[in-house]
Amino acid sequence: MSNQVGESHSNAELSAAIGAAAAQAVLGGHRGTYPAVIPGWTKVHTFFTVLWPVLAIWAVVAGNPSYAVIPMLLLVGMGGLYLRIGAVARRNRTRRIDLYDAGLTVASDGQVRVARFDSTSVLQNIVRHYRNGVYRGTSYQYTVTDLHGRPLKLDGGTYVNPRAWGEAIQQAVTSAQLPLATRALTAGHRLQFGDVWMTAQEVGAGRKSVPWQQIDEVSVDKGAIVLAVAGKLMPLTAKMVKDIPNHIVFLALADQLRAAHPGR
């Protein structure tokens, strides 16, 4: 589901379009809004008001006409950056994530798209960045499927407070889908999580499988899902967690099934 939203819409009109899309998808009560980050002008403004005049005076005092090219080139480059920041700021004013009891809406690129927690799949990629051993920050990226099964990317660099909305989405998806998945396993179904699968008796990837009673623990180690079998860690699949949809639901189910099949 997607509703068209013109870039010229006011905040009230945008909110109305989002509310209409949420109501149509029966998303329930509103939990919170996470707008897009509006890029700052500080560095560009500092250049124009302080640094560029200094460079221009230096070029004149130096008495070499060729030196004048330097501040002129910088002026052109910074002017282009100034325009680009303005364009991003205008576009981001109509971008936001809204969370509801039963799903979420994403306003972006002139559309409002919708995902429900009981049917969406979530890919999560959280990376802690270091430089020379010094922590430099964490990047967040999520991909959810909308009501039509199309991927919808949510970048932590675009929307404010990604840790909060990312955790909220994962918790809501797990709460909505875990009971459904548990009933499906009890009924004898096999559940697929990308190239990883599970039944009430075993877990596997491709043709490789391990009975639950042989597994001591299922966990994430260095970005991969690993099984602890007879005191040894073995990777379940070569795929990383970031490539496994709804891996939080998978891990919750694994804990339940492992507890239901204690080792001998």
TrEMBL record:
Keywords assigned: Membrane, Transmembrane, Transmembrane helix
Domain of life of the source: Bacteria
Transmembrane segments: 44-61, 67-87
InterPro entries: DUF6585 (IPR046492)
Pfam families linked to this entry: DUF6585
Protein name from the UniProt record: Uncharacterized protein
